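One record is set out below.
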Amino acid sequence: MPSVTHEALVELFKNRPTLAAEMLHDALGHPVPTFTEARVESSDFTEIVPSDRRADVVVLLVGEQQPAMAIVVEVQLGVDPDKPYVWPVYVTQTRARHRCPTGLLVVTINAAMARWSARPIDTGHPGWALTPLVLGPQGVPVVTDAEQAKAAPEVAVLSAMAHGQSEAAEAIGVAFLAAADELDEERRAVYGDLVLSSLNAAARRKLEAMMKSGYQFQSEFARSYVAKGREEGIREGTLKTKAQAVLAILEARGIEVPAEVRERVLASTDIDELDRWIRRAAVISDARELLATTGS
């Protein structure tokens, strides 16, 4: 099942059909023909291919009332041994359907995956090797200018997802939040969650500090999301404290805590569950009994 991050990246390219062409030309330096329209086309290949195969996004660039170029966009977040076999199918079938030059753009926010995705695919036919065009974190622009974020909010979101753990995280977040009011309500919510969840903890704390020191975001959306970040930070701290309390009680009683139990406790996101475990930790004789009582 595709992850939330995967689906979010796919939506960026669907919501802004020109994004694929912009990334090919601006980020990767790949030639793109002159076009007057960019539109999302069907990415379903089941009409021609017997098995169920579907690309993430297919964008068609149209110039002078005829297709100028098609771009198959594939979001890749993990190694998939099937992709070197299906990607050439996506390219050839899209080319046959639209009768125009077709490129494969693989998008990833992980440097290791960018290297994996960029490997040439030898189809076995002499002279025919498909080399994917890969947009990795190094190719994504760092958007720290509010006007640039307003002009291309999807690029700003990509920037946060690719560079949200870098020193530029704070500036990226501020730039996006300044542009958020110009988005429709649905995109504000989705993009805002993506951006703020991509920023490192220091950047999120800095945004909160800026609010406390009198800095005023122009966006009501920005103010609400910084407040939301503060609430989430408090909740995360509570979860961590309670999880550590469970383990401390067990260890203080001389009860060995297996690795799987420790990992499960530390991974819990349910405060009520942790409260139950704190009470149980005081009476059980085997740490594994803790997990057997989650429903009580």
